[in-house]
Design goal:
- The protein has helices at 34-50, 54-65, 70-76, 86-117, 137-150, 165-168, 200-209, 251-266, 319-324, 341-349, 362-365; strands spanning 5-6, 14-15, 155-156, 162-164, 193-195, 214-223, 235-245, 272-279, 282-291, 308-317, 333-340.
- With 369 residues, the chain is α+β, with helices and mostly antiparallel strands.
- The protein has two domains: 5-115; 137-368, 2-Layer Sandwich (BirA Bifunctional Protein, domain 2).
- Strands 3-6-7-11-10-9-8 form a seven-stranded mixed beta sheet, with helices on both faces. A two-stranded antiparallel ribbon has the order 1-2. The protein has a two-stranded antiparallel ribbon with strand order 4-5.
- Helix 2 runs antiparallel to helix 4.
Length: 369
């Protein structure tokens, strides 16, 4: 006698492994056939393949191969199968169970793998904050100076840090006995090569390649054998300027240019003072002082009670320099100037020690972002 039965947990699903197709829920004579086993096998395999997570896969396992599952129930009913069909039905039932268990293990490993590795990106996690970088104070000053002079028609020129003696000294009218030529003041490499002591060699390079008018600034790093202290460094930055034209250019033009730069860089109330000086590459030459931005020219510790801060050196280009670069000193006119970038940065930001600019302390540098 064939019998229908209910699986645990599936009270609303009536399974009839011992009934023939079309007789679910009815007791009939005879037993299950191979065709019925094949149908149930396909359904179980499809269910295992369609399980989307471990919980759904475990439900398939319990439903079909669990202690009270469909396959064990069919095994118990093998006694009701006709003797002639029993061997074939037994083989089919055994193959069904083996195939389903193998598929269940494979799907279990497949579903567990992504969980072990973790997702490539979890969109539910909060975002990670990245600090915004900022330009170094020295770079900020160079960019500000370049913008000011760009509005006056100057372009930026650049050159190598390793120079030759002609560009760095000879063409700038520096005498062979000048102290800067000594190894105690300059980093000499081999032959006549050296680390440039100023950015003036760039001016020489430009003038030897271009005819007037020339209107450039040359920001860059320089090197000198200075003992490092609060105000000196073996490497530092300069911005030098050069204006050469076939039209008359006078010291008054130089003064007005630097006065305009001072107001743009330090504020409209800054004063400018020019003092006579000597440089081998300019004649006449001047030192340029700005009124102290801290005390307004009244005198304080920053300006050493003078009310003035030395900023730049300048002057009209010496005729000998024109001859070195192939210009006719009788038909060209021009001026040149140079200033230390770190000095301006220290004045603007109130930095007391130049070494702070090169220690790469993010806590210090982040103040200027």
């Amino acid at each position: 006698m064939a019998a229908a039965f209910l699986l645990p947990g599936d009270d609303d699903v009536l399974l009839s492994c011992l009934c023939r197709p079309g007789c679910a829920g009815q007791e009939m004579e005879g037993g299950m056939t191979v065709a019925e086993l094949e149908t149930m096998e396909r359904e179980s395999l499809d269910a295992a393949r369609g399980a989307m997570d471990a919980a759904a896969l475990d439900q398939v396992r319990v439903r079909y191969v669990g202690r009270n599952g469909l396959i064990p129930a069919c095994v118990k009913q093998m006694k009701d199968v006709p003797a002639a069909e029993r061997p074939e039905s037994g083989k089919r039932l055994h193959a069904w169970r083996a195939g389903l268990e193998a598929l269940l293990e494979a799907r279990k490993a497949e579903l567990a793998a992504p969980a072990a590795q973790g997702p490539a990106f979890d969109c539910t996690l909060p975002g990670r904050w990245h600090a915004t970088g900022a330009a170094h104070p020295v770079s900020q000053v160079i960019e500000a100076v370049a913008r000011i002079f760009a509005r006056l028609g100057f372009s930026v020129a650049d050159g190598p840090d390793i120079e030759n003696a002609f560009n760095n000294f000879t063409a700038l009218n520096t005498a062979p006995h000048h102290p800067s030529m000594d190894e105690a003041d300059t980093f000499w490499l081999d032959g006549d090569r050296l680390l440039r002591t100023q950015t003036s060699p760039v001016q020489i390079r430009v003038m030897t390649r271009h005819r007037p008018p020339v209107r450039i600034i040359t920001p860059g790093r320089c090197y000198r054998r200075d003992t490092t202290d609060a105000t000196h460094s073996a490497n530092f930055h300069q911005v030098e300027g050069l204006y050469v034209d076939t039209r008359p250019v006078s010291l008054a033009d130089l003064k007005s240019t630097l006065a305009h730069f001072a107001r743009e860089m330090m504020g409209p109330g800054v004063g400018v003072r020019f003092r006579p000086h000597f440089f081998p590459f300019t004649e006449p030459s001047v030192e340029v002082d700005f009124s102290c931005h801290v005390c307004g020219g009244k005198g304080c510790r920053v300006c050493k009670m003078s009310g003035w801060i030395e900023i730049a050196g300048a002057g009209m280009v010496d005729p000998r320099v024109y001859r070195f670069v192939g210009y006719d000193p009788e038909s060209v006119y021009g001026y040149a100037f140079g200033m230390g970038v770190e000095r301006i940065a220290m004045i603007q930001y109130g930095i007391k020690d130049i070494r702070s600019l090169y220690e790469n302390d993010v806590r210090f540098l982040s103040q200027f972002g």
